[in-house]
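Why show two proteins at once? Because comparison is the fastest way to build intuition. When a single record is shown, students tend to memorize it. When two are placed side by side, the eye starts asking what differs. So, the first record is below.
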Amino acid sequence: MSNPETDKIKVIVANDFSDDIMAQLKAVSPRLDITRYKEDVPSSAWAEAEVLYTGRTFPLPEQAPRLRWIQLPSAGMDSALHHPIVQAEDVVITSTSGMHAKQLANYTWLMILAFNFDLPKWMINKGQSLWPENPLEGGSPVDVDKQTVGIVGYGSIGREIARLAQAFGMRVLASKRDIKNPAQSESEYMPAGIGDPEGDIPERIYPGEAVATMAAESDYLAVTLPLTEGTRHMINERVFDSMKPNAVIINVGRGGVIDEKAMITALSSGKIRGAGLDVFEEEPLPSTSPLWNLDNVIISPHVGGATSTYQEQAAAIFAENLRRYVDNRPLLNALQRDTGY
């Protein structure tokens, strides 16, 4: 007779975790039977698997009838949601959301300071070996503590952007799907000591449908949203029309949250000042995209959340969720199927 408190839990890691990381995962509980597959996973392994860590290798539902939980190594879930096994209602899907908060908030600050000091123009001048006669033509930089940042999406990334903004003396606004509950949920992972757990920093929190109103007051509009049917093209022509002429948009969420055609029109016409973009509707960004030729755009190839300790940080979240799974406690960052993240 099986015993749910002592039976082995078959875990597949479809990832190139180091031996040290694998040892740490196995140390979580003697009940865990963890096997790493760097390439193909055999059918016999799928048949017994109860837990799967993967970003790219997904079985069909009939291949893994015992599978109950998939841990993704990414914060976003949109790239995995089309797999039939992920759509199965009896399979819990979790992410590493929150792990990227520090790095993506730092990236956002890189963009804010770059545009505050007019780095794009400096790079153009450098390419032309040009020392301008009037280096401050167009005006001096505005002190950052006289500016406002509007944060679209007040999850882990948005909360850390707010903490840094407060430290720089900026006025902080934010938008959030559920404005009645500004505090961070206990079911969401967040590194200790950062962010805004209670949701106290923003001067005002707007509902999602009022993003254009918030944008009208923002010098920098920082987009941190995941991509769902509800967020696709949330930043659209109406939002760009409401923005200040000197405003800059920064996207560290997902490319599809922004209507790229509307953004290109706003940037090329001078409706807004610039953009710092790490994510795009199509990736890699096609060489034919007008964004490549706009001098007021800084482009990075979806690396804003990258770090030399990515594997270790992702494994730490997986380890915590493994402890919770063994103890039959709720998992961190579980997919809410009604919202898509």
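Second record. Ask yourself what differs from the first in the token line.
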Amino acid sequence: MPARDAEPFPRAVLDVLGAAADRPVFEHGTRVVTGAELLDLVARVATALRRKGLGPGDGVALLLGVTVEAFATILAAHVVGARVVGVRPGLTDTQVEHLLGLDIKLVVRDTADLVTTGLVTVPAAALHCDGHPGDVARLIHTSGSTGAPKACAQTYASMANAWNTRPAAWPPAVRELAARLGRYLVFGSLSSQVMFEYAVLTLTAGGTVVVADDPATAITDLRATARVITVPGLAKLVAAQRHSPTGLDTLEALLVSGSPLTAERHREALDVLGPVLFHGYGQTETGMISMATPSDPPGTVGKPPVDVEIRDGELYVRTPSQASSYWGAPEESAEVFVDGWVRTRDLGRFDEDGNLVLTGRARDVVIVNANLFHIGPIEHVLAGHPDVAEAYVVAAPDDDTGEAVHAFVVPRADRVPRLAELRELVTARLGAACAPVRVTAITEPPVAPSGKPDKRRLAKLIGTA
């Protein structure tokens, strides 16, 4: 057993909970959980996992909601050194089956069962973290638009290097944000990398994690100081505040995530909501790359505290907590994880003050509700419809989801398929987020000088380029 100060993740989180003692650290409705109580819950679940034979290197899949028990189970699985796979909502049955087939020893669907079978008294000091630094600590999945979601493998060493558990290493933007995380909302899924890691940052900063059953009204109802929000969600909040202002007096930080924020929308949000915007840029493969604080220039993502190189306009980065590979995908790993760098496939530049400005994407993707989906597999499914000879997809702006799929199809014998049929086909194969919201029939696609279909000219037809 390693010495306590040499133990891997989540030792730093356990120490935070131990120091919190009687301070509230988690809140769900009328239930308030102290640091000591959450630490005890983690200990009991870890004991239950060990009784079930789970240990270092074993795979555990978590199909859980957003509860105190779910958060404790994630930490407990890391305590025993497992390889944790969180299964997020919205995946197809086929995709879930794929995730559960990734060398999984235990599937946890109900934390109550673990807690009741593990009801033993375990002093907090007896909690020991068994993860090996080089072992994979968790698999964080990409969107799954290829049918099988890609799993970013993050080691225990990488998780221990993350900023959220190391106050002494906090970059200025993270330090400013941490001071505003008094009551941070969690909702949706704790398998979300962003949701979970800001929760850990909140605990480390001395705040309380608050479960929001209805995030739309939670800022006011739960007197939250911080929450994650997508760009479309931010637009709706700004519009609502312009039309009928409501009390947001407790709000100190909106963590804008998932897609770039234009300078115009950035300025408008600051004007309407005040200095509360923290615009983060990162990827599943890298964790946080950069973050703009409310005082940084609108349209930028601030000054990156990590290594960033621009190669032919494309961003390559090195971060403390980056993944090491895609699990079980050596060819795809070789394309993205290059000599210690991560190829982001995003385009960008630095302004004269060193702020990072994102200018586009080098990959053919659509970002729906902050989730990235590759366009190629969507086109392949659409082309499989009996009335479709060819299919081309572009990302179209959408007020509800940020971006959405717009399909251009070349019909067979003038038989234009109905939108509902195409949506049903894609939903069954890839999930509802990949389904087209609009379809346009064309006789043939425009062609670029390379001889390939010209997606930029297709995008201009719907005003997106």
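One difference worth noting in the second protein: The chain has 15 helices and 24 strands.
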